[in-house]
Write a structure and sequence with these properties.
heterodimer; A: 482 residues; mainly alpha; 20 helices; B: elongated
Chain lengths: 482, 195
């Protein structure tokens, strides 16, 4: 009997294949070369990511297609999200090299694990089946657990890694159990086949709904949506700051794409079942994000709660089930990357021997370093959603989508929590501008930090004033859905 | 009774007795050896069910790797058995509850299905699994290999410590080159202060 090979279009997988080769090459390099080549490994990791971006750009225009037995999906959404993932990996990597150097963390494995988590995330965004979704999620998370515990002589870092690992494993277990129930109810793990099975079934079986609920809970853990957010503040605080910057953005992009795939491709017929659940999650997440941040004194914890607040807004865009809502989610994610990376880059710039983790350390920054203070305020204003910055347009589009979908109550609640959230963003600005300076703030801003800050600030400002191009791009990327 | 039946009941009896041996033997090394016997006779049962792939997996992975690892751990750790036995009583209600649930499930399953499920085709199941795994599920399979690689890297990154200048062997030249002033220190202590 001849073996029947499914259609395998390896060209579509070339960015992932390239990154895998880069990761393994770097692993061998770090094993055989001495300490003096560590800088080279970082440079090579970054060039590998840039090369993957070039390859991704070189692929012929995306017509929605599935390959590798239906497990790999190539469409506009996958392409767009892969771009965001590459940016969300490259920028944190670029800005964290000095930090890694100072803290003795710049061994080759750091870069290898960063790239493997990127591969996992890329597999997730083009997943065509629950099996691939799980494997991609696990590859991404497993690498990140290790990165969170990378500063293994620091108790906090080890604790962060362990906490993330245990709760993440629990989430993976829940996701896997949900998947098995969906498989039991429909007899397949492919998203399209699950959708067909639901459409052709006479009635929706409770097993299927329970499976869907468990899958949603599993992914909610990964985006830190309340009430599954408990790990986020501790992990953000304990992990090395360079890793925190990475886990604040990259997994969010991957997990929200997973939401798109699962909710709109597999469970689109169950919209009545999952929409109320996501709305509840969104309200809880907004509440935790804005109320939890008020009492924080550590900037990393504060940014953790801030990211939870942003996830609340993203969830609202998701619940609308409309194209405008999906467009707003992609647009929000794109802006969130730059706002968050910019803020974390400033935290890294100002971080000196234990100074820079507390918000009070930033007192009087404006008098010594007006430009850095201006940038920090700009990112904070953008996160708070104050015009004319990118964060404002992002929030505006989510609200417009919610109002158009008739979710008026949800829109009002989100505006109230956004107003409460603005308080703690403005508090940082107040501390920077009006408090008395205690620190000397005599640090130099290196070239890589300058580049990252310039890119982030430029995007936040330009998109805030001329959002048209990015909005069109977001719309094009979600058109293959629904 | 057919020969196959006799073989089945023989292996089933060995499996059960060996499993009892795992929990009841006083010596932990004997427990692990009983565990290996349980694995082996279960593998034989799988062969009788024409599931030779599972049988091979059980022998290679569980007996060849896991059980041997257990054996090493048990031999290296010096555990107090009586202490463990005393604690075991505390967990008895939970154990009984889990046992009862499993028994209930077995009764439900066995009372509903009597059909003997024959092997799906004449293709040996190792071949069938291989054909599916390396065609339809090639991409998930490769990704899983990457996950295992990351697990390996992670374990090494988080535990390996480079010890500099720690030598655990005798260096005779160093021993001979030692002088009296390096090796001996004279300390004046007042009587009664000691230390």
């Amino acid at each position: 009997m001849a073996v029947q090979l499914p259609e395998m279009n390896l060209v579509l997988l070339s960015p992932e294949i390239l990154l895998s080769l880069v990761a393994m090459g770097l692993l061998l390099m770090s094993a055989w070369s001495g300490k003096e080549s560590r800088g080279l490994i970082g440079t090579m990791a970054l060039s590998g990511i840039v090369l993957a971006a070039v390859v991704l750009a070189g692929l012929s225009s995306a017509t929605p297609s599935a390959t590798m037995g239906g497990h790999f999906i190539d469409d506009r959404l996958a392409r767009a999200m892969k771009w965001l993932l590459l940016i969300a990996t490259a920028l944190p990597l670029l800005m964290s090299r000095e930090y890694l150097n100072q803290h003795g963390l710049d061994s080759g494995e750091y870069y290898v694990l960063t790239i493997t988590s990127l591969i996992g995330a890329m597999a997730m965004v083009s997943a065509g089946s629950f099996l691939l979704l799980y494997l991609g999620l696990e590859l991404m998370s497993l690498s990140i657990y290790v990165l969170a515990a990378y500063q293994r002589d620091q108790l906090q870092s080890t604790e962060a890694g362990l906490k993330y690992f245990i709760l993440g494993s629990l989430a993976s277990g829940i996701l896997l159990y949900g998947t098995s129930l969906v498989y039991g109810a429909t007899g397949t793990t492919l998203f399209t086949a699950v959708a067909n099975a639901i459409k052709t079934a006479e009635h929706v079986s409770p097993v299927l709904v329970l499976g869907a609920v468990l899958v949603i809970i599993g992914i909610s853990f990964k985006v830190a949506a309340a009430p599954f957010h408990m790990w986020a503040p501790d992990v953000y605080e304990g992990a090395p700051t360079s890793v925190t910057a990475f886990i604040a953005v990259m997994p969010k992009v991957a997990a929200f794409t997973a939401f798109f795939r699962v909710l709109l491709e597999a469970f689109s017929a169950l919209h009545v079942h999952w929409a109320p659940m996501l709305q509840l999650l969104a309200v809880l997440t907004l509440a935790v994000g804005s109320l939890g941040a008020i009492a924080q004194s550590n900037i990393k914890r504060l940014l953790a709660y801030s990211s939870i607040g942003h996830v609340g807004f993203l969830l609202i865009g998701l619940t609308t089930g409309s194209q405008l809502g999906h467009q707003s989610v992609v647009f929000y994610l794109a802006n969130y990357i730059f706002m968050s990376v910019g803020a974390f880059c400033l935290v890294l710039v100002l971080n000196r021997q234990g100074i820079g983790d507390q918000i009070s350390d930033y007192a009087g920054l404006a008098k010594k370093r007006p430009l850095l203070a201006f940038l920090m305020s700009m990112f904070m204003f953008s996160m708070a959603g104050i015009p004319p910055l990118a964060g404002f347009i992002a929030k505006l589009y989510v609200l417009m989508a919610a109002v158009k979908a008739g979710l008026l109550t949800l829109a009002v609640i989100s505006v109230i929590f956004a107003a409460i959230g603005a308080f703690y963003y403005l508090r940082i600005v107040k501390i920077i501008y009006f408090d008395v300076a205690e620190q000397p703030f005599d640090m130099e801003v290196s070239l890589s930090h300058q580049i990252v800050l310039a890119i982030s600030a430029l995007i936040v400002l330009v998109v805030g004033i001329f959002p048209g191009k990015l909005l069109d791009w977001s719309l094009a990327s979600v058109q293959s859905l629904l | 009774m057919m020969v196959v039946d006799v073989i089945f009941y023989a292996f089933a009896a060995v499996t059960t007795l060996a499993a009892i041996g795992v929990v009841s033997s006083r010596n932990q090394v004997h427990s692990v050896l009983f565990l290996i016997l349980t694995f082996f006779s279960t593998a034989a049962l799988f062969v009788l069910l024409e599931a030779e792939f599972l049988a091979a997996l059980l022998v290679m992975v569980y007996m060849g790797a896991v059980a041997v690892l257990f054996l090493f751990v048990v031999m290296m750790l010096d555990m107090d058995v009586s202490d463990l036995k005393a604690q075991a009583i505390n967990h008895l209600p939970l154990g009984l509850a889990v046992g009862a649930v499993i028994l209930l499930e077995l009764v439900v399953v066995l009372s509903h299905s009597h059909a003997h499920v024959a092997a799906a085709s004449t293709v040996p199941n190792t071949l069938a699994i291989g054909r599916t795994l390396y065609t339809q599920y090639l991409y998930p399979f490769e990704l899983a290999s990457l996950i295992l690689l990351v697990a390996l890297i992670g374990a090494v990154v988080l535990t390996l410590r480079e010890r500099k200048k720690v030598m655990r062997r005798q260096v005779i030249s160093q021993q001979i080159a030692r002088t009296r002033s390096e090796a001996v220190e004279l300390v004046q202590r007042k009587p009664g202060e000691g230390a």
